[in-house]
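In response to reviewer comment 3 from the previous cycle, which asked for concrete evidence that the modeling workflow produces usable outputs, we include below a single protein chain processed end to end. The sequence was submitted unchanged, and the resulting structure tokens are shown without manual editing.
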Amino acid sequence: MGKKAYLQISFAWLFAIIVGAFILFLAIFFSIKLINTEQTIQDAKTSKEIGILLNPLETGFETTKSTSISFPAETRIYNKCNNKGTFGRQIIQVSQKSFNKWSETNIDVGFSNKYIFSEEYVEAKKFYIFSKPFDFPFKVSDLMLITSSEKDYCFIDAPLKISEEILFLNQENLLVGNCSTQSTKVCFKGGDCEIKVDYDNKRIVKDGEIMFFEGDALMYAGIFSNKEVYECQVKRLMQRVDSLALLYKNKAVFISEKGCYSNLDLLTLSNLANSLEDSKDLFIMSNSVESIENENDLGNCKLW
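The workflow returned the following structure tokens.
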């Protein structure tokens, strides 16, 4: 009888331990799930906030603007680009470090009117952002260039106007000469540098790959981007050029009815923009862009 009672008590204790362990497991499991869910929501909100914070950087008629953005935790900003559709999509994804582990999220926040140039991802607590308008030949958009505060870029033998512009920006991670050993060197006249800019022939060599540019805005974009991001964003910009060229063509028809004539070859520009395959084709468009720009500047009826 005593042995039977002992077995019953032992079984009761064993059962209680098993049930308690299971309940504890569920509590820990759902707590982790809740923390991960909250972190995912926070990452998505941060991505959206970054897009909103970029709005004041749209320069209008100014040349450049610069600012910084800081986060309480170590943060990665992933730059993703999709050129499908009329204007494609700028996609931002954010991951933050918590308990010495990077959060994982599949939530993408997209914008059709933003053009961000950076590496595949940039990592820091503080980021620098400067914007520069891209004209081709009319104002197309403002390019947003994001860099990490933990990475310096040192410009060597840059043209005077580029050196002056960098000094004007007063951005702490952009240097002109006096490079530190940790700086990423950007050379304009050859040399042992991580990034080489052939300013006259409008091309950039970085990580063994070549990117082509037209105008200083795209030059900066190529310096701070990897090739995949750069080429996708250039394609998106040309999609916008295509649409804007047709809008200005319609505007030319409208003002001609009021006796003001503009004979710009915007249809050719639209077709060239629509057929662009990669940045190498920018050179093909450059003559058309320059011709249209000159004719519009000299014309009595300016379209922009």
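Residues 246-298 form one domain. We consider this sufficient to address the reviewer's concern, and the full set will be provided in the supplementary archive.
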